[in-house]
Design brief:
The protein has one domain. 69% of the residues lie in helices and 0% in strands. It is built from 8 helices and no strands.
Length: 202
């Protein structure tokens, strides 16, 4: 239980997909203009991670590794992610047309969001770590914990940036820095703030 909690907390703060690895920056920058939209995309990304990582874990440990065909993992991971994203897209379109419209092209683009693929590849690496390693993923519950933490960390990042950008719309930003300029500076400062968690021994 302690290991699962450690994985969960580390994946939110220490190994944050945005601020530690800068994965998923495309949709992170494009959809972070509005808090409501950012929350919607964050929930969608978290859901996709929580479903795909355990499935990919089972594929890796129960199918690919026993058959000695681990080299196919990349293709299979992409197929699983694409299928789950298609399901999420249909559900959002059916139950929240306004969110579907506001997310636009970035909802189907979750399929190629490198944060999700990166999480699957990190999970694959962590399977090979020793059981005593705090980053190790040893069973499906570890995979679920890591997926949930990674998704919450990504959502926390995008919602935080969206809240700041909404406030900055009323700020006196120098003309040369308006738009992406001040956004990149803000992301850099947020990443520096998250670096304070890197020394945590959880």
């Amino acid at each position: 239980m302690d290991h699962i909690l450690s994985l969960f907390v580390r994946s939110i703060f220490v190994d944050n997909m945005i601020f530690a690895f800068f994965l998923g920056m495309c949709s992170y920058l494009a959809v972070s203009k509005n808090v409501k939209t950012a929350i919607g995309l964050g929930i969608a990304v978290t859901f996709v991670l929580v479903v795909t990582l355990p499935v990919n874990y089972l594929l890796q440990t129960k199918v690919l590794d026993p058959l000695g065909i681990g080299y196919l993992s990349f293709i299979l991971f992409i197929a699983v992610i694409a299928a789950i994203v298609q399901l999420v897209e249909m559900v959002v379109e059916r139950f929240s047309p306004s969110l579907y419209a506001s997310l636009g092209i970035f909802l189907p683009l979750i399929a190629v969001n490198c944060a999700i693929m990166g999480a699957s590849l990190f999970m694959q690496q962590r399977i090979t770590l020793g059981a005593t390693d705090p980053k190790a993923i040893t069973d499906i519950w570890d995979a679920i914990s890591y997926a949930l933490g990674s998704g919450i960390g990504w959502m926390l990042s995008i919602v935080g940036l969206a809240a700041i950008r909404e406030k900055m719309a009323y700020s006196d930003v120098p003309a040369p820095l308006k738009g992406l300029g001040i956004t990149f500076i803000t992301v850099g400062l947020m990443a520096m703030a998250f670096m304070c968690f890197s020394g945590l021994n959880i």
